[in-house]
Amino acid sequence: MDALKAMVPRAVLLFLALTLGACAGTRPALPRRDPAALRYYVTYTREPQRGLGVEIVLLPSSPRDFLFRQPERVDTVWAVRKDGSSRALRLHGGELHVPSGTRFLRYFYPLESPSRGGERSFFSGVGEKDAWHVAGRAYLLRPRVVTPDLRVDFMVSRTDALLPWLPDDAGLYRLRGEDLVDSGFHGFGGRRCEANVGDAVLEVALLGRFMHLSDREVCDWLAQAAREVITVRRTFPHPRITVRVVPVPGAEEPALFGMVQWSSPPSISILVGQDTTAEALRRDWIAVHEMLHLTHPTLMPRVAWLTEGLATYYTEVARARSGRQTPRQAWQELTDGFARGQSAAGSRTMAEVVAREGDWRGVYWTGAFFALRLDLELRRVTHNRARLEDVLELLATQGPTSSLAGFGAAVDTVAGEPLFDALLSHQLSVPAFSDLGTLLDRLGVRIDPGGVKLQAAPDSGLREAVDGGRSSDDAG
Question: DSSP string spanning 175-193?
């Protein structure tokens, strides 16, 4: 036992004491459980350390090879046989082979960590008291190979959880194996509010305290962002999504960082300055940017410049269409962003810029410039009868995933003629933003020392169609 104590943290020993053998009867029963499903029991614990105790109930047919996609805070998993005997298994690069005869896998995932803050904590665990945010991929041990027929029963106890999925009336999540692969963001504890946009609902977890904001003001901010999404799509792209809002102590900025993960349905999480105000939230762009990612399919393989470019372009357009900013402010934001992208790109071609994903200014704003070019060309060749949003509507009917080629085919269908490949080939081969000055001149967007001015020009009608939103005939 002394050797065991030396090897395993006290929190893990306590978790094992609670779960091995004697206390197994306290585990919540799974109602109407699927006898062929892999079963996960997740228990929130407070003492001596806040964390998640996880038990996986195996079947004879269950996989024998498991892994952590983000191995960081767990190095030991206990394999328990039916007779109650147990064995400590060490992870090797996040991977684990389960010995024959194992009935349960048990481990403890600490949410509290000495290394607080930073992007890693956004995934591995950030919070305070009994309100915590963590990515599913960080704490969930999953089969290394997930087959299409794998089913999972999942239950959380001793805390109020906000997961991407919708539980049944008894609190049981009936999942597919792929939900363990794309497990999204999870919230434990905190407070809840809802925002409704048409027939869609945003379930929100507030994971900490704000100094100057009410819960309603936070939910209203998210509802506003969701309403701006439907200036781009006819309806909100999903009937239900979950959003976790995490206050960051000592920060006055509105949203500091946000991300959408492609769980099913997608899940969004946003870091917000704890000392921010409702007025500052009205100037925020991150919430609508993340929600705008819901308007396009997941591109496989990943094409960051296009997906981020679409969201960046529409962030300014949607806020103008909703009235949250004026058209002049929208074009000021776009031209300022293009200037930052041009500074990052230098004399490199678009192909050279987008090949370096770490150069986020170049990637995002080169993509946004291409989205603007594409939107204008679609409007031009169809005499303003079609636009980039129609491409997104068409893609939505074709499924949740697509490819760059599939995106291009949808563009050509909406245009009624080949358009995408020629425009992309041209943009990739020339210095990024080399056409920007000519394009702005034709749109009537003039950059003066005092800021952007909008004026009559050959294509100012197209400009006004871009920032003016849908007509009443199209909004339904």
Answer: EEHHHHHS--EEEESSEEE
- What does the alpha-carbon distance between residue 186 and residue 163 come to, in Å, rounded to a whole number? 5
Q: What is the pLDDT of residues 209-221, one digit of tens each?
A: 999 999 999 999 9
- 216 & 275 share domain: yes
Percentage above 70 pLDDT, the chain: 90
User: Measured between alpha carbons, how far is 113 from 133 in angstroms, rounded to an integer?
Assistant: 13
Which residues is 431 bridged to in the sheet?
Answer: 349
Q: Indicate the pTM of the whole model.
A: 0.91
pLDDT of residue 188: 98
**Total domain count for the chain?**
3
In whole angstroms, what separates CA 63 from the centre of its chain?
29
pLDDT of the residue at 470: 41
- Nearest CA among 249, 292, 284 for reference residue 268: 292
Q: What is the DSSP string of 48-95?
A: SS-EEEEEEE--TTS-SEEE-SS-SS--EEEEEETTS-EEEEE-BTTE
For the sheet containing 151-157, what is the strand order? Answer: 86-90, 76-81, 102-110, 51-57, 38-45, 151-157, 173-176
451-454 vs 445-448, strand pairing mode:
antiparallel
Which domain, by its residues, includes 387? 298-475
Would you say residue 118 has pLDDT above 90?
Answer: no
What per-residue confidence (pLDDT) applies to 16?
Answer: 54
Residue in 260, 214, 215 with CA at minimum distance from that of residue 241: 260
**CATH number (domain holding residue 176):** 2.60.40.3650
Total count of residues recorded for the chain: 476
CATH number at residue 233: 1.10.390.10
Question: Count of alpha carbons within 13 Å of 466, Cβ hemisphere only?
Answer: 29
